[in-house]
Amino acid sequence: MDTNIKNKPAHKPNFFDKFIDVTRVIEEVILGTGVAFMAIILIANVFARTFFKSIYFVEELTQITVIFVTFGGIGYGVRKARHIRMGAIFDALNEKIQTVLIYIICGVSAILMFFLASKSITYIMRLIRFREMTPSLHIPYWITIVIVPIGFIMAGIQYIITIIKNIREGEVWLSAEQKSEYVDE
Q: Which pLDDT score, from 0 to 100, does residue 185 have?
């Protein structure tokens, strides 16, 4: 055993690190809950259809859950750097240009996410005013899409976190968890 290895002091999490952890937990709960719920209702409907008759509202619940998982997972996709990007072009540039580009890309993307969140809130307010209901379950339609602005806001926050991470680390990060260099997965 090498005794020359220096023990680094344990990293004490600051507010930024705690905030990143909280957003990670929220995103993972949204995705995990949504996927598990969708699996349960679809499997239950298969059994019901096989032995009795189909559950009439499962299609509607599945559509709601797909919306829930899709928009709830936007922030998670940004966190894991699984969003659309021009990797070949970006990776060919030098680090200084990459740094400038990541600030521009993340800044514009964050603004776009917050803009879309505001538009989706406006749409939800209109649905509340008109009292739209889902056809099978007869629940207010706005409840089924309230996750849309939440997902956009979480994605916008992830883009801001990426900007902050790049400023703090001094290296190019595509997201709070993904460095710029290509990594085999």
A: 44
